[in-house]
Amino acid sequence: MSSTTDIPDVIAAGLTASALSRADFAAITDLCVRCSGFFSLVEGKPGGPEVAEEFLSDLAPGMGSESKHVLGFSRDGAFFGALDLVDGYPEPGNCYVSLFFLDPAARGGGLGRAIWAAIERWIRARGATQARLVVQTQNPRARAFWESRGFEVIGETTQRLPTLENRVWRLLKAFPAVGDSGTL
Q1: pLDDT (tens digit per residue) in 53-84
Q2: Nearest to 12 by CA among 68, 73, 64
Q3: Long-range contacts at 89-93 (CB < 8 A, ≥ 24 apart)
Q4: DSSP3 helix / strand / coil % (the chain, rounded to 5)
Q5: pLDDT in tens, 13-36
Q6: Closest CA to 3 of 96, 59, 87, 78
């Protein structure tokens, strides 16, 4: 898979995607603060600089920084969402969604669906055969969102974080091979 520089610039009318970096720390921190309810629910702490730092720097076990793609989403210039993807985790051909969050004011209007549709096309075009993620059991709305995007629950496990222990659902979406009924 290639670098983040090949992400689709325009996801849908008025929506743009861009690679995020340390230069965006203040904007990411502001978004994390606006999403404090989400972070309190799933991580046991409100959003802020510490969460923004983790979002930018945390790596999946055994993975290097070249596998991490931190993306931001804007509408008409206003930054409202972010996504952390990991190539090749937990195995080659997989793309792991570490975190996807939207400003609460941007939820429920189809932006998440539009973003995921574009990101799914992007990761499939780059060779991913599956996408994986976990959803905390205390967040059933997130599970419903991902299931509506074609993900299936493949198991349940315990997630141990420094501030919270969660039961989580493990979800998977396998992509049909080119030429199968799900041709690109």
Answers
A1: 999 999 888 898 899 999 999 988 899 999 99
A2: 73
A3: 89/60, 89/62, 89/63, 89/132, 90/60, 90/132, 93/127, 93/128, 93/129, 93/130
A4: 35, 35, 35
A5: 678 889 999 999 999 999 999 999
A6: 87
